[in-house]
Amino acid sequence: MPIEIFIHASGRAPSVAAVEATEKLIDVLEREGIAAEAHADAFVFAGESTDVLIEIEAEDRVDATLPVDKNHTIAELKLGHHHHVHVAHCRHVKVEVHYGVKTKSRTVAPSTTVSTLAAWAHKAFKIDPAIAAEYVLQIFGTTTQPRGDTHIGELTKKPPCAVVFELVKEITPQG
Amino acid sequence: MSPAEKLFSVDLASAAYQSGAAAGRWGVADYSLLPKETGWPKACFWLKAAVRCGAPDRYYIMIDVTGYRSESPTGSFWDPTNKTMLAAAKYPKGKPGSRFAQVFRTDWGPGVSKAFYHYFDRFTLSSHPDWRNSPHLLWTERHTIVDYLDEFQTLLMGDDYLGQ
């Protein structure tokens, strides 16, 4: 019986794939238009990383999430219904967040979501939890505020394998 | 099926929508909760809310998606029990002065039980021409129903949400 998984990759919208447990992930990716040649050296991550929430203050910590072998089957990778897979050319993504004159940085897996990074930024900058919900990540030098479900790996390419944000207060409608 | 309706269907089938649904953040309301005549361009969704004493675990919204995505949706909370727009007294409450309280305000006469006080709502935008001076906050053709649902569901999960 097929299950559905979500596939994320840089430069394309996420897709839903119906897969069988016995299928190799590499065959699924090929079917989804993530060509084997173009992604021969790509890293594949299963699930969404929350490693950044460990040791909030440790700026030199590198996300410990390991890529998986795409030649394994869906069952071998323990991918379940509605699990996420991320295909990236970046092994890690360097994230830098500016808040006022302060800057915090971390090296995370491409499968880290923007909402997870926002939660980290709130704690790293010690934003009062009572008002933290109104502070969001905005790509530095733009007015773009990626949705929370966006994987950080979708926002960069190799090079630079890096994303710079500002932590900004969301604008409240007035009038 | 009109192009707008087809595009709406495509976006409901997208990974972004399905991912949110799979995470229990939102879903399409059961037909039994709607008047029989409900159909395009009306759409009814439920949005998961954070646990608050005495408050529901989800709120329903009824929106009009005419002209999707060229035009932004407009709508507000829905009362599935009485099958009407939700009375202002039953709106989710937010901390005074918060963004939450402003978006779901009940003291803005023209919009109560009709439209959220938000840049994404085309009815509200039509009466706030000055909002167009901040184009980066407005709905564009690149936005989808997922952006709309995400915006309001995120508010309902935040610390500024106090309950019903």
Provide the gyration radius of chain A in Å.
17 Å
> Quick check: average pLDDT of chain B?
96
Total helical elements of chain B: 5
Do you know the CATH architecture of chain A?
A: Roll
Class derived from helix and strand content of chain B: alpha+beta
Q: Using the coordinates shown, work out and report the CATH topology of chain B.
A: Ubiquitin Conjugating Enzyme
Most extensive chain interface and residues per partner: A-B, 26 and 33 residues
Structural class of chain A: mainly beta
N-to-C CA distance of chain B: 38 Å
Domains of chain B, number: 1
Q: Figure out the total of helices of chain A.
A: 2
Using the CA coordinates, give the radius of gyration of chain B. 15 Å
Shape of chain B: globular
Classify the beta-strand content of chain B into a percent band: 15-25%
Largest sheet of chain A: 4 strands, mixed
Question: In the CATH hierarchy, what is the class of chain A?
Answer: Alpha Beta
* CATH superfamily descriptor of chain A: Phosphatidylinositol 3-kinase Catalytic Subunit, Chain A, domain 1
SSE order of chain B: HHEEEEEEHHHE
Q: Stretches of chain B where pLDDT falls below 50 for ≥5 residues?
A: none
